[in-house]
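**Protein fold record**
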Amino acid sequence: MDTIPLRDAYRELLDAAATVAGHGAGSTTGSGGAGPLPPAGEWNADQILAHVAILNATTLAAVSTIAMGANTTYDNRMALDTWTIERLITLTGGNAGLRERIRLQADALCALGGPALSDAELDTPVPTRLLSKDTALVDAPVPLRDLITGLAEVELPGHTRQLLALLPSGGAAEAAT
């Protein structure tokens, strides 16, 4: 499995997170303070990064379990739990710690999710439950390969856009240059 798109999606997410942190936008631990608050009901930068780190851990657990020949499930509800998100922010020391955690998780996932697994392992159906804002998006078996490509094609780009939206007016254009 080609993990270049996954690596690229992580790079773009981490670049956006560093840009937002550099502007102190939407983070409780960014270099410039809290910055503008996200719209009501949306996450700040630290919460977005903690959510991604929890999803990465969930994905790594599923990949590792399949790699050892066992069955697994995939459920993103822990990555939506506010207590768990805030706990991870505290445990990692905030924004910089979260970015480093995600960078290391990306390296592991690109190594495990690509050359380390056979096509049969990547095609293993994984009972999956994916929620977004209390709405079930998926509640069915999904091939492990699709969980990994879903990170690259949907999840990470969506959170990259969410991070960039935290920049002050004109900041998103500045980040793109």
The first strand starts at residue 74 and ends at 75.
